[in-house]
Design brief:
The complex is a heterodimer of chains A (215) and B (114). Chain A is an alpha+beta fold. Chain A has 4 helices and 9 strands; from the N terminus they run ααβββαββββαββ. Chain A starts with 16 loop residues before the first helix and ends in a 9-residue tail after the last strand. Classes of the chains: A alpha+beta (215), B mainly beta (114). Strand 1 of chain A pairs antiparallel with strand 7 of chain B.
Chain lengths: 215, 114
């Protein structure tokens, strides 16, 4: 309502400017959180390094993944969260958001890896996607792919099926195992700079909540 | 649409920017730096009525409120958004995943009288 008058719709007197500002900020917070279906603002315990984030966004742009052009579509980035390795194999763990599992359908998911090669020529690598067995005690192989790495650089692998099966089983963690034929150390450059960290980019469509029409 | 300026009491778009850093949200919202939560305010006298608006049903609801509160109010049109656009967000969720999405109709670009 203009200054000094009352609102013709609700009958309340106009608010003092500072009160009005507080009300508007509270409304802005509530509006964003409700549209993102978040009960509260997330507390970030493991922020991704800016280098890894910028690289991931740049790679996605290069792949023309401008998914956020129509309502309900979103892109999710899960950057490598932990990993372990032996002389001939590396295990990468990616964690996915819990809310997404129940409220969105995964349209596609791509694993991005930055290969490094010890010498010119082809280097066979076996990529296994692992998932916990029903008891959650052991890992079983969900899929296995044989690759021939010819040169250093970014490579992509379709992991859409594995991520969909992960969500359908209510799990949050995707484990990728890379096994190399000869003893060339880690096939990834990740350890040397966070700009080369592996990440998974998934496109998902938020499920619209079931609407009941009152007649 | 008209942007509010000076003491005009006519229907206009009021700019309002929420700076995420000011409200302590800059750690989980990566981009953008804030939210333009513009809103529509001001009166719609008869000669301005009829400019197409977005929420006719909203208009009906508000009108019935006005009549309930003040039967002799000479208002029969409301100042509502006529153009809106999405808010594009890049943010962390609770599991430190990074999500990029567009929330439709979050930013008011123009206002008009229904």
């Amino acid at each position: 309502a203009p200054k000094g008058l009352w609102c013709p719709a609700c009958g309340l007197a106009a608010l003092a400017p500072t009160t009005q500002r507080d009300v508007l900020i509270a409304l802005a917070k509530q509006s964003i959180l409700s549209k993102l279906r978040l009960p509260d603002r997330p507390n970030i315990t493991q922020p991704t390094s800016r280098g890894a984030l910028l690289t991931a966004l740049r790679r996605m742009e290069a792949q023309r993944m401008d998914t956020a052009v129509s309502p309900g579509l979103l892109t999710l980035l899960s950057v490598l969260c932990t990993g372990s390795s032996t002389s001939r194999s590396v295990r990468l763990h990616f964690r996915f958001t819990w809310e997404l599992a129940g409220s969105a359908d995964i349209l596609q998911a791509t694993l991005y890896l930055f290969w490094t090669v010890p010498s010119p020529g082809s280097h066979p690598v076996t990529v296994r996607l692992l998932q916990p067995d029903p008891e959650g005690l052991n890992m079983t192989v969900a899929s296995e792919t044989q690759l021939d790495v010819q040169r250093a650089g970014w490579a992509t692998l379709d992991v859409g099926q594995a991520v969909r099966s992960l969500f359908s089983r209510g799990s949050q963690r995707l484990t990728v195992e890379l096994e190399v034929a000869e003893d060339w150390g880690s096939p990834l450059l990740a350890g040397r700079s966070d700009s080369y960290w592996p990440f998974v980019a998934a496109q998902a469509r938020a499920r619209t909540p079931h609407r009941v029409q009152r007649r | 649409g008209i942007d509010c300026s000076g003491d005009s009491r006519m229907c206009c778009r009021k700019e309002f920017f929420v700076d995420f850093k000011e409200i302590g949200w800059e750690d989980w919202i990566i981009q953008p730096e804030g939210y333009h939560m513009n809103y529509c305010t001001g009166l719609c006298p008869l000669h301005m009525a009829g400019i197409p608006g977005l929420a006719a049903s909203f208009h009906t609801a508000v009108l019935s409120l006005i009549k309930a509160n003040n039967a002799d109010a000479a208002v029969d049109s409301c100042c509502v958004p006529t153009q809106r656009r999405p808010l594009s967000l890049l943010y962390y969720d609770r599991d430190s995943n990074i999500i990029k999405t567009d929330i439709p109709d979050m930013i008011v670009d123009a206002c008009g009288c229904t």
